[in-house]
Amino acid sequence: MRNVTSHVAFLMLFAAVDSAVVAADPVDSRPRVLFGESFDDVQLAQRGWYDGREVKIVSRTPAAGPGCIEYHWNRDATKAAGSSAIRHLFQPTETVYVRFQIRLSSNWGWSGRSYHQHLMHFMTTENSKYHGPAASHLTLYVEPVNGKLRLAAQDIQNKGTPHGLMQGPLRGGYNGKFYDSRQVLFHDDRWHRVEAYFKLNSLDSKADKPNADGVVQGWFDGKLVVDRHDVVFRSSDFPKMRFNQYLLAPYFGPGLLPHAQTLWIDELIVATGRIE
After folding, report:
1. Could you give the CA distance from residue 237 to residue 165 in angstroms, rounded to a whole number?
2. DSSP characters for the chain?
3. Sign of the C-alpha dihedral, residues 259, 219, 199, 1?
4. Rounded to 5 degrees, what angle do the CA atoms 71, 74, 76 make?
5. Which residues contact 144 (CB under 8 A, 6 or more apart)?
6. In which region does residue 221 sit, left (phi positive, over 0), alpha (psi from -120 to 50) or beta (all else)?
7. Cβ-contact 63, 266 below 8 angstroms
8. Which of 58, 139, 159, 176 is deepest in the core (most CB within 10 A)?
9. Please, is 51 exposed, middle or buried when counting C-beta atoms within 10 Å of its C-beta (0-12, 13-18, 19+)?
10. What are the chain's domains?
11. Exposure of 20 by Cβ count < 10 A (0-12 exposed, 13-18 middle, 19+ buried)?
12. pTM for the model
């Protein structure tokens, strides 16, 4: 695929699953690249991106190639200027992986809250291609928060479903489970490689309950910093749930931007498993 040059070298092994367990898709032992983007020009719509009106590609010191995408916040803003939130659909899958390069400006400041700011998301077949990330049947988060790498999940829209919420109770109208790195990792204005991998949990159809075998993993510059294999993402209300949408949407909540600042993203790959 365009803009993808990495060689697939990582193999994943999965044990056989009991017939009472629902894991609808057989998992390929070799990761498949779903799409890649180097952000070298503004023609993103021609490469499957949608739902974004503005794209700003800059040539100042990209991680690789001639360009990268820039998100700049003016003072007191929530959404970034120059580049909009953008989405990309991909073939539905029970496992999903993202790798990208990120750089924060030298004056970067944090929101001062434990729940902001946001960066990028994965969404599922249980919601439409234009559904917002904040209240869905499942939204995954990949973002730097207060210097740490955060991987998170929320499922607010499941409040009225038979099996209810899987990502914790509602708190002020929101819910979520956070999987943070132990260390502060983002503390300079250099390019860093971030990777995240998610695997949906299986379902015990006989007992009508989820199995706590979902996976959340994160890497920072090649080092594993988040590693959980006991996660529940979905209940048996959603046996056909698959990941099928990537959303790049850097955002600060109202009043939470500390000052004008900028971030850049480059060399993005979305796949079914880790690509090295």
Report:
1. 11
2. -TT--PPP----------TTEE--SPPPSS--EEEEE---SS-GGGGTEES-S---EE-SS-SSSS-EEEEEEPTT-SBPBSS--EEEEEEEESEEEEEEEEEE-TT----SSSS--EEEEEEETTS-TT--TTSSS-EEEEEEETTEEEEEEE-GGGGGSTT--SS---BTTB--EEEE-SS----SSS-EEEEEEEEPPPEETTTTEE-S-EEEEEEETTEEEEEEEEE----TT-TT--EEEEEEEEE--TT---SSEEEEEEEEEEESS---
3. positive
4. 125
5. 102, 104, 119, 150, 185, 186
6. left
7. yes
8. 139
9. middle
10. 21-271 (2.60.120.200)
11. exposed
12. 0.89
Under a CB-based contact definition with an 8 Å cutoff, are residues 20 and 49 in contact?
no
Let me know: does 266 contact 40? Beta carbons within 8 Å. no
Contact residues for 202 (Cβ-Cβ < 8 A; gap 6+): 17, 21, 22, 23, 210, 211, 213
- Taking the C-alpha atoms of residue 3 and residue 5, their distance in angstroms, rounded to an integer, is 6
In tens digits, the chain (276 residues) has pLDDT values of 333 333 323 223 222 323 233 444 444 578 999 999 999 999 999 999 999 989 999 998 999 999 999 999 999 999 999 999 999 999 999 999 999 999 999 999 999 898 889 999 999 999 999 999 999 999 999 999 999 999 999 999 999 999 999 999 999 888 999 999 999 999 999 999 999 999 999 999 999 999 999 999 999 999 999 999 999 999 999 999 999 999 999 999 999 999 999 999 999 999 999 998
Q: Which two tokens stand for residue 183?
A: 């260390």
